[in-house]
Amino acid sequence: MAPELEALATATRAAVRAAADWPRAADLVAAQLRRHLPSPDVLTLVQREGDPERHRSHVLHVEPDGSFSIVALVWRPGQTTPIHDHVTWCVFGVVQGVEYEELFRLDESRACLVEAGASANETGEGSGFAPPGDIHRVRNAGAETAISIHIYGTDVSRIGSSVRRSYELPVRSAG
Description:
By secondary structure, this protein is of the alpha+beta class. The chain has four helices and eleven strands.
């Protein structure tokens, strides 16, 4: 494992062990990711190219006890995720480009989604969250490939993805 990735895994391990619950894990791991955000060089040149059809993920590390996974996501311009939530906490940091994130919440009737915020995360920036309240959509709205490092509180190589469900509900503005 690359030294900068090893440093991130070590710091994440300590943060996960210190956390009493998922929101605290997300906060502690996000702080460590900000301190140890690796460069895009942890990926090969081929991995950094992405996929012309959809964003691509590369599992970089899975903790042996399954407590977390470090994954690189590569987004070519215009690529987006469906609106989705997660099975566990997640943090991310952008190492190249800009990722645009839209946040949503279910309305009281659970019949539609309500816009709850948005942010443009540039290189060096990131965020984290824990369910519930983690409904979002991410896209590369820039002109260059975007790359981000995500840390999920599970073994993604075992479960395939951290996505719990995708939402195909109508979306309304918060106002």
